[in-house]
Amino acid sequence: MMSTVSTETVRTPRTVERIIQGQSVMDGAGVKINRVLTNTLQRRLDPFLMLDNFGSDAANDYIAGFPDHPHRGFETVTYMLEGRMRHRDSAGNEGLLANGGVQWMTAGRGVIHSEMPEQEHGRMEGFQLWLNLPAKDKLCKPWYRDFTAEQVPSFTTADGASVRVIAGSSHGVQGAVQRAVTEPVYVDVALPAGAAFSQRIPAGHNAFIFVYRGAVDIDGKPVASGRMAIFENSADSDGVQLHASEDARFILLAGQPLNEPIAQYGPFVMNTQAELMQAVEDFRAGLLGEEAHA
Fold first, then answer.
1. What secondary structure, in 3-state letters, does 258-293 show?
2. Mapping DSSP to helix (H, G, I), strand (E, B) and coil, where does residue 54 land?
3. Comparing C-alpha atoms, which of 95, 91, 69, 68 is closest to residue 80?
4. pTM
5. What are 93-135's pLDDT values in tens digits?
6. Is-contact 3 172, C-beta < 8 A?
7. Residue 194: helix, strand or coil by DSSP?
8. What is the reported pLDDT for 294?
9. Strands 66-71 and 94-97
10. Confidence of residue 292 (pLDDT cuts 50, 70, 90)
11. Contact at 8 Å (CB) between 154 and 190?
């Protein structure tokens, strides 16, 4: 059940640096995806590596799913707005991600997992975020947890914003997951037309929003549905402030940059080419998934 909180005060809000349109790609076994945060933005939006938005009413766009594939060196956060997706991995974890649910997986030293739809019709919509791990944690023991819609903390503001807090905190409400190094903030906001929403964000964090319903206005700059707005970094800022020009929904993300080298080869994200080569060798030798059992 949602609680009501007072509006969070932001005295010096950030402005928009630029607005990004995602790229249409296919991933997994042929799932159509809007890749919002691409490789070219990894350094700018450190510690975030990738953000995919998937959404379709046509089963052919999603039914093939994501069969067994490996990960090493980062975390995946899957947020399902609508639909049913079954997760299985080499560490013996299994869970069903359904409407409003969140799946958080720390790949660490390595897992092999699959994400397969458990529906043959209807809408499948959601997001998958890749969050980097610091060098000291890249080979940590894998971790996994499912959160049902009811387990994701939520609240409404006095201005009528309905907010779900996946990570970090918002308006004093602690999210489902906390991370000490990257300190991610991940909220999903439904904002009625004419209402405003503020979120306090540390000045050192990189931050962005993705609007997936309606449109918002940030300091006079419109951000339409299907667009990502990257917030300008400023040592003087204490957060962000948005207004809904029509009924809108968006996700807002912020995180403490790691400022470490990024070496990526597909589903492996390490700090050096040598570490990438080791990850590939471990996978080919059948060791990567086995490591998840240790």
1. CCCCCEEECCEEECCHHHHHHHHHHHHCCCHHHHCC
2. strand
3. 95
4. 0.94
5. 888 999 999 999 999 999 998 888 887 677 889 999 999 999 9
6. no
7. coil
8. 39
9. unpaired
10. very low
11. no
